[in-house]
Protein backbone atom coordinates (compact mmCIF):
# COMPACT_ATOMS: atom_id res chain seq x y z
CA UNK A 1 0.00 0.00 0.00
CA UNK A 2 1.41 3.39 -0.95
CA UNK A 3 1.69 6.10 1.65
CA UNK A 4 -1.15 8.63 1.98
CA UNK A 5 -0.55 12.34 1.47
CA UNK A 6 -1.25 13.11 5.13
CA UNK A 7 1.18 10.43 6.31
CA UNK A 8 3.77 11.62 3.80
CA UNK A 9 3.50 15.18 5.11
CA UNK A 10 3.76 14.02 8.71
CA UNK A 11 6.89 11.92 8.00
CA UNK A 12 8.55 14.71 6.01
CA UNK A 13 7.89 17.35 8.67
CA UNK A 14 9.16 14.99 11.38
CA UNK A 15 12.59 14.78 9.72
CA UNK A 16 12.66 18.22 8.12
CA UNK A 17 15.31 19.43 10.61
CA UNK A 18 17.87 16.68 9.81
CA UNK A 19 16.92 16.80 6.13
CA UNK A 20 17.53 20.53 5.94
CA UNK A 21 20.70 20.20 8.04
CA UNK A 22 22.20 17.64 5.65
CA UNK A 23 21.10 19.70 2.64
CA UNK A 24 22.77 22.79 4.10
CA UNK A 25 26.03 20.95 4.68
CA UNK A 26 25.97 19.46 1.19
CA UNK A 27 25.20 22.72 -0.61
CA UNK A 28 26.99 25.05 1.88
CA UNK A 29 24.30 27.58 1.04
CA UNK A 30 20.91 28.35 2.63
CA UNK A 31 19.01 29.11 -0.60
CA UNK A 32 20.38 26.04 -2.39
CA UNK A 33 19.60 23.91 0.66
CA UNK A 34 15.94 24.97 0.52
CA UNK A 35 15.79 24.21 -3.22
CA UNK A 36 17.41 20.83 -2.65
CA UNK A 37 14.93 19.89 0.09
CA UNK A 38 11.98 21.00 -2.06
CA UNK A 39 13.21 19.03 -5.07
CA UNK A 40 13.92 15.94 -2.96
CA UNK A 41 10.43 16.08 -1.41
CA UNK A 42 8.89 16.36 -4.88
CA UNK A 43 10.90 13.37 -6.15
CA UNK A 44 10.05 11.40 -3.03
CA UNK A 45 6.33 11.95 -3.54
CA UNK A 46 6.61 10.82 -7.16
CA UNK A 47 8.57 7.74 -6.08
CA UNK A 48 6.35 6.96 -3.04
CA UNK A 49 5.44 3.53 -4.42
CA UNK A 50 9.10 2.51 -3.94
CA UNK A 51 8.88 3.01 -0.16
CA UNK A 52 8.50 -0.59 0.95
CA UNK A 53 8.11 0.09 4.65
CA UNK A 54 7.29 3.42 6.37
CA UNK A 55 9.75 2.44 9.13
CA UNK A 56 12.51 2.98 6.55
CA UNK A 57 11.20 6.43 5.60
CA UNK A 58 14.17 8.36 7.01
CA UNK A 59 16.87 6.38 5.14
CA UNK A 60 14.70 6.34 1.99
CA UNK A 61 14.28 10.13 2.14
CA UNK A 62 17.99 10.73 2.75
CA UNK A 63 18.81 8.53 -0.23
CA UNK A 64 16.53 10.63 -2.44
CA UNK A 65 18.09 13.81 -1.03
CA UNK A 66 21.68 12.72 -1.77
CA UNK A 67 20.75 11.39 -5.22
CA UNK A 68 18.97 14.66 -5.97
CA UNK A 69 22.04 16.58 -4.89
CA UNK A 70 24.26 14.52 -7.21
CA UNK A 71 21.98 14.86 -10.22
CA UNK A 72 21.25 18.58 -9.67
CA UNK A 73 24.91 19.38 -9.30
CA UNK A 74 25.76 17.41 -12.39
CA UNK A 75 23.39 19.64 -14.35
CA UNK A 76 25.22 22.76 -13.20
CA UNK A 77 28.66 21.47 -14.15
CA UNK A 78 30.03 22.55 -17.50
CA UNK A 79 31.34 19.04 -18.10
CA UNK A 80 30.60 15.82 -16.25
CA UNK A 81 32.91 15.02 -13.37
CA UNK A 82 33.34 11.93 -11.28
CA UNK A 83 30.67 11.45 -8.65
CA UNK A 84 32.45 12.43 -5.51
CA UNK A 85 29.75 11.01 -3.25
CA UNK A 86 30.40 7.60 -4.74
CA UNK A 87 34.14 7.93 -5.08
CA UNK A 88 36.01 5.23 -3.21
CA UNK A 89 39.67 5.97 -3.69
CA UNK A 90 41.64 6.61 -0.51
CA UNK A 91 43.43 9.83 0.22
CA UNK A 92 46.79 8.13 0.19
CA UNK A 93 47.43 9.19 3.78
CA UNK A 94 47.52 7.16 6.95
CA UNK A 95 44.89 7.40 9.66
CA UNK A 96 45.13 10.59 11.69
CA UNK A 97 44.23 10.85 15.36
CA UNK A 98 44.19 14.06 17.39
CA UNK A 99 44.29 11.95 20.55
CA UNK A 100 47.58 10.39 19.51
CA UNK A 101 48.99 13.84 18.77
CA UNK A 102 48.15 15.46 22.08
CA UNK A 103 47.79 12.71 24.67
CA UNK A 104 50.52 12.72 27.31
CA UNK A 105 50.33 9.44 29.23
CA UNK A 106 52.87 10.54 31.83
CA UNK A 107 51.31 13.94 32.48
CA UNK A 108 47.95 12.73 33.75
CA UNK A 109 48.29 14.69 36.98
CA UNK A 110 48.69 17.94 35.05
CA UNK A 111 45.32 17.54 33.38
CA UNK A 112 44.28 16.17 30.06
CA UNK A 113 45.58 17.91 26.90
CA UNK A 114 43.09 16.08 24.68
CA UNK A 115 40.15 17.24 26.76
CA UNK A 116 41.62 20.75 26.75
CA UNK A 117 41.74 20.51 22.96
CA UNK A 118 38.02 19.71 22.84
CA UNK A 119 37.20 22.47 25.33
CA UNK A 120 38.89 25.04 23.09
CA UNK A 121 37.18 23.79 19.96
CA UNK A 122 34.54 26.24 18.75
CA UNK A 123 31.36 25.41 16.90
CA UNK A 124 32.75 27.44 14.00
CA UNK A 125 35.85 25.23 13.95
CA UNK A 126 33.67 22.15 13.55
CA UNK A 127 31.55 23.85 10.87
CA UNK A 128 34.65 24.89 8.97
CA UNK A 129 36.28 21.46 9.22
CA UNK A 130 33.11 19.74 7.99
CA UNK A 131 32.80 22.17 5.10
CA UNK A 132 36.40 21.47 4.11
CA UNK A 133 35.82 17.72 3.77
CA UNK A 134 35.38 16.13 0.34
CA UNK A 135 31.68 15.57 -0.36
CA UNK A 136 31.74 11.79 -0.07
CA UNK A 137 33.37 12.14 3.36
CA UNK A 138 31.24 15.08 4.50
CA UNK A 139 27.95 13.32 3.83
CA UNK A 140 28.90 10.22 5.78
CA UNK A 141 30.15 12.15 8.84
CA UNK A 142 27.07 14.37 8.82
CA UNK A 143 24.74 11.38 8.63
CA UNK A 144 26.60 9.39 11.31
CA UNK A 145 27.87 11.99 13.76
CA UNK A 146 25.72 15.07 13.29
CA UNK A 147 22.36 13.41 12.55
CA UNK A 148 23.01 10.13 14.37
CA UNK A 149 21.97 7.63 11.69
CA UNK A 150 22.92 4.00 12.23
CA UNK A 151 25.34 2.33 9.78
CA UNK A 152 22.49 0.36 8.19
CA UNK A 153 20.50 3.54 7.57
CA UNK A 154 23.54 5.28 6.08
CA UNK A 155 24.14 2.29 3.79
CA UNK A 156 20.53 2.50 2.63
CA UNK A 157 20.69 6.30 2.29
CA UNK A 158 23.84 6.18 0.16
CA UNK A 159 23.05 2.95 -1.66
CA UNK A 160 26.33 1.31 -0.63
CA UNK A 161 27.18 -1.85 1.34
CA UNK A 162 27.53 -1.48 5.11
CA UNK A 163 31.23 -2.38 4.85
CA UNK A 164 31.71 0.66 2.62
CA UNK A 165 30.04 2.83 5.27
CA UNK A 166 32.47 1.53 7.91
CA UNK A 167 35.59 2.11 5.80
CA UNK A 168 34.45 5.46 4.40
CA UNK A 169 33.49 6.69 7.85
CA UNK A 170 36.89 5.73 9.24
CA UNK A 171 38.66 7.68 6.47
CA UNK A 172 36.25 10.61 6.79
CA UNK A 173 36.82 10.91 10.55
CA UNK A 174 40.56 10.75 10.03
CA UNK A 175 40.33 13.57 7.47
CA UNK A 176 38.08 15.57 9.82
CA UNK A 177 40.52 15.20 12.73
CA UNK A 178 43.42 16.22 10.49
CA UNK A 179 41.53 19.40 9.50
CA UNK A 180 40.54 20.15 13.10
CA UNK A 181 44.14 19.67 14.15
CA UNK A 182 45.34 22.15 11.52
CA UNK A 183 42.64 24.62 12.58
CA UNK A 184 43.80 24.29 16.18
CA UNK A 185 47.43 24.82 15.25
CA UNK A 186 46.43 27.92 13.26
CA UNK A 187 44.72 29.19 16.44
CA UNK A 188 47.93 28.68 18.39
CA UNK A 189 47.09 25.42 20.12
CA UNK A 190 50.22 23.82 21.53
CA UNK A 191 50.81 20.31 22.74
CA UNK A 192 52.28 20.04 26.23
CA UNK A 193 55.54 18.90 24.66
CA UNK A 194 55.69 21.88 22.31
CA UNK A 195 54.77 24.28 25.12
CA UNK A 196 57.58 22.88 27.27
CA UNK A 197 60.06 23.24 24.41
CA UNK A 198 59.08 26.77 23.42
CA UNK A 199 58.44 28.08 26.90
CA UNK B 1 49.75 1.27 26.84
CA UNK B 2 48.97 -1.52 29.22
CA UNK B 3 49.54 -5.04 27.93
CA UNK B 4 48.86 -7.08 31.02
CA UNK B 5 45.32 -8.08 30.24
CA UNK B 6 42.72 -9.63 27.98
CA UNK B 7 42.72 -8.96 24.24
CA UNK B 8 45.04 -5.97 24.41
CA UNK B 9 45.02 -2.32 23.42
CA UNK B 10 45.58 -2.88 19.72
CA UNK B 11 42.59 -5.20 19.47
CA UNK B 12 40.37 -2.82 21.45
CA UNK B 13 41.46 0.37 19.67
CA UNK B 14 40.57 -1.11 16.29
CA UNK B 15 37.04 -1.49 17.56
CA UNK B 16 36.74 1.60 19.73
CA UNK B 17 35.02 3.91 17.25
CA UNK B 18 32.39 1.32 16.38
CA UNK B 19 31.99 0.75 20.12
CA UNK B 20 31.29 4.50 20.53
CA UNK B 21 28.84 4.33 17.61
CA UNK B 22 27.02 1.42 19.22
CA UNK B 23 27.69 -0.64 16.09
CA UNK B 24 30.04 -3.30 17.42
CA UNK B 25 28.79 -6.89 17.17
CA UNK B 26 27.74 -8.23 20.56
CA UNK B 27 30.45 -10.88 20.36
CA UNK B 28 33.14 -8.16 20.38
CA UNK B 29 31.36 -5.61 22.57
CA UNK B 30 32.04 -7.47 25.80
CA UNK B 31 35.73 -7.87 24.93
CA UNK B 32 36.14 -4.10 24.48
CA UNK B 33 34.21 -3.42 27.68
CA UNK B 34 36.40 -5.85 29.58
CA UNK B 35 39.55 -4.23 28.22
CA UNK B 36 38.31 -0.74 29.13
CA UNK B 37 37.79 -1.83 32.73
CA UNK B 38 41.51 -2.35 33.11
CA UNK B 39 43.15 0.12 30.69
CA UNK B 40 43.30 3.78 31.61
CA UNK B 41 44.86 4.78 28.29
CA UNK B 42 42.09 3.29 26.20
CA UNK B 43 39.52 4.82 28.56
CA UNK B 44 41.04 8.25 27.86
CA UNK B 45 40.81 7.54 24.14
CA UNK B 46 37.20 6.41 24.55
CA UNK B 47 36.36 9.61 26.42
CA UNK B 48 37.97 11.75 23.72
CA UNK B 49 36.19 10.02 20.81
CA UNK B 50 32.86 10.09 22.67
CA UNK B 51 33.15 13.81 23.44
CA UNK B 52 34.15 14.66 19.87
CA UNK B 53 31.12 12.77 18.59
CA UNK B 54 28.92 14.62 21.10
CA UNK B 55 30.28 17.96 19.91
CA UNK B 56 29.40 17.04 16.32
CA UNK B 57 25.90 15.92 17.30
CA UNK B 58 25.35 19.36 18.84
CA UNK B 59 25.55 20.82 15.33
CA UNK B 60 22.26 19.10 14.57
CA UNK B 61 18.90 20.62 15.33
CA UNK B 62 19.47 24.03 13.83
CA UNK B 63 16.17 25.79 13.33
CA UNK B 64 14.63 25.12 9.93
CA UNK B 65 13.92 28.53 8.35
CA UNK B 66 10.18 29.23 8.32
CA UNK B 67 10.37 29.91 4.58
CA UNK B 68 11.64 26.36 3.99
CA UNK B 69 8.99 24.82 6.25
CA UNK B 70 6.21 26.85 4.58
CA UNK B 71 7.48 25.99 1.11
CA UNK B 72 7.56 22.25 1.86
CA UNK B 73 4.05 22.36 3.38
CA UNK B 74 2.71 24.24 0.37
CA UNK B 75 4.47 21.87 -2.00
CA UNK B 76 2.88 18.81 -0.42
CA UNK B 77 -0.53 20.49 -0.35
CA UNK B 78 -0.32 20.87 -4.12
CA UNK B 79 0.62 17.22 -4.77
Give the overall silhouette of chain A: elongated
Radius of gyration of chain A: 20 Å
The string of secondary-structure elements of chain A, in order, is HHHHHHHHHHH
Give unreliable regions of chain B as ranges: none
Tell how many strands the DSSP assignment of chain B holds.
Answer: 0
- Shape summary of chain B: elongated
Helix content of chain B: over 70%
Distance between the termini of chain B: 61 Å
In round numbers, the mean pLDDT of chain A is 85
**SS summary, helix count of chain B:** 4
Computed structural class of chain B: mainly alpha
Number of strands of chain A: 0
* H/E element order of chain B: HHHH
Keywords:
heterodimer, A: 199 residues, mainly alpha, 11 helices, 0% strand, elongated, B: 79 residues
What does this structure look like?
The complex is a heterodimer of chains A (199) and B (79). In chain A, 67% of the residues lie in helices and 0% in strands. Chain A has eleven helices and no strands. Chain A has helices spanning 5-14, 16-27, 30-46, 57-76, 98-102, 113-120, 123-132, 135-146, 151-158, 162-186, 192-198. In chain A, helix 3 packs across helix 4 (57-76), helix 4 runs parallel beside helix 9 and helix 9 packs across helix 10 (162-186). Chain A is elongated, with a radius of gyration of 20 Å. Residues 79-84 of chain A have low confidence and may be disordered. Chain B is mostly helical and 79 residues long. The radius of gyration of chain B is 21 Å and the shape is elongated. The chains are: A mainly alpha (199), B mainly alpha (79). The A-B interface holds A 5, 8-9, 12-13, 16-18, 20-21, 24, 30, 33-34, 37-38, 41-42, 45, 98-99, 103, 105, 108, 112, 114-115, 118, 121, 123, 126-127, 130, 141, 144-148, 150-151, 166, 169-170, 173, 177 and B 1, 17-18, 21-23, 40-41, 44-45, 47-49, 51-53, 55-62, 64-65, 67-69, 71-73, 75-76, 79.
Amino acid sequence: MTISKDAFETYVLEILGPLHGVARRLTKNEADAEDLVAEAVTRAWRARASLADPVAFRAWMFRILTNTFISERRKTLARPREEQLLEESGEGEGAFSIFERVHQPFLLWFGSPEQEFLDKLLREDLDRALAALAEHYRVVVVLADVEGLKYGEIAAALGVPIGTVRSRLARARSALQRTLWNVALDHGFQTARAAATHG
Amino acid sequence: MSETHDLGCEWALKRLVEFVDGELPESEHDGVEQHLRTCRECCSRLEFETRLKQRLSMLSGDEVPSTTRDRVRELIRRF
